[in-house]
Design a protein that fits this description.
- The chain has 9 helices and 7 strands; from the N terminus they run βαβαβαβαβαβαβααα.
- The protein is α/β, with parallel strands linked by helices.
- It has one domain: Rossmann fold, CATH 3.40.50.300.
- Strands 3-2-4-1-5-6-7 form a 7-stranded parallel β-sheet, sandwiched between helices.
- Helix 6 (about 150-160) links the parallel strand 6 (about 135-140) and strand 7 (about 165).
- Helix 1 (about 15-30) packs across helix 9.
Length: about 210
């Protein structure tokens, strides 16, 4: 597989972009033996804080590279990182709209996380439009949602109404995702088995299939 760039983008905050970014990164490393770079373009710096805690606690960063960049600088940074990484993941801030364009143009795949929520529906259109204009492959990811939510079917229908493909995996609103982040880790490092591990492992494989 040639080196690929995944941009995780959604103009609404609280959709779990950063949590998804680090969990996918560690799943690609752990289950698929890939070398991964993650780029933090969010001024809030949540991804950087996670990596700093990780480094301070001497958690292994083998095959993982962390960089920061502006939204406009992410395009250059990702091109450079592609030279010696299998996957580059760009984590973007909320409320970006047209500013997202450089990070989206750098992507081989745009991953759009959204909860089973009407508020998330309303926020998704602008990013989809930018990604479609850039002729990028797009995947919607139902994130931080219960499989039993009454809105799951409506969410799937909404994704179809935008003529988008979604992943086959719903990422649950599980405590292990956020608690592991606070330790500079991920669920796949904290647990050997469990629903979160199954979800992330399955999702990482689906995304790689889309990229190949």
């Amino acid at each position: 597989m040639l080196s690929k760039v995944i941009t995780i983008s959604q103009q609404k905050g609280g959709t779990g972009k950063t949590t998804l970014a680090v969990h996918l990164a560690m799943a690609f490393i752990k289950y698929h033996n890939l070398k991964v770079a993650i780029i933090d373009t969010d001024p809030q710096g949540s991804l950087g804080k996670w990596f700093m805690i990780r480094s301070e606690r001497k958690v292994s960063n083998e095959n993982l590279t962390f960089k920061t960049a502006s939204l406009w600088g992410a395009q250059y940074e990702s091109k450079t990182l592609k030279n010696d990484h299998d996957i580059v993941i760009i984590d973007t801030p909320p409320k970006i709209e047209s500013d997202a364009r450089p990070s989206i143009e750098a992507a081989d795949l745009v991953l759009i996380p959204m909860a089973a929520s009407h508020v998330d529906f309303w926020a998704t259109g602008a990013i989809v439009e930018i990604a479609k204009k850039a002729n990028k492959k797009i995947l919607a990811q139902i994130n931080r949602s219960s499989q039993r939510s009454k809105l799951i079917d409506k969410t799937k229908d909404f994704i179809k109404s935008l003529d988008l493909q979604s992943t086959d995996t719903i990422i649950g609103n599980r405590q292990i995702y956020t608690s592991s982040m606070g330790e500079g880790k991920t669920a796949v490092e904290k647990q050997r088995k469990g629903n979160a591990v199954d979800e992330i492992k399955k999702l990482s494989g689906q995304i790689l299939n889309q990229l190949n």
